[in-house]
Amino acid sequence: MEAALGPALQRLAEIKQRWDPDNRFRVNRNIPPSGKGHG
């Protein structure tokens, strides 16, 4: 996914951490919250 999003991935992960820290919205191409591991 890093190849597709490049530097935007880190920013998106930070936003995800703020709005969805439990990763409830994880279908399709998931961006894990910045506090979680990749998986």
Helix content range? 40-55%
Mean pLDDT: 81
What Rg is obtained from the alpha carbons, in whole angstroms?
A: 9 Å
User: What is the string of SSEs from the N terminus onward?
Assistant: HH
Distance between the ends: 11 Å
Helix/strand-derived category reads mainly alpha
- The low-confidence parts are none
Q: Total helix count?
A: 2
Largest sheet: none
How large a portion of the residues is in β-strands, by DSSP E? Answer: under 5%
Shape: flat
Number of strands: 0
What does this structure look like?
The chain has 39 residues and is mostly helical. Helices cover 41% and strands 0% of the residues. The protein has two helices and no strands. It has helices spanning 2-5, 8-19. The longest helix is centred in the middle third of the chain and has 12 residues, at 8-19. It starts with a helix and ends in a 20-residue tail after the last helix. Residues 9-32 form the Berberine/berberine-like domain. Pfam families: BBE (PF08031).
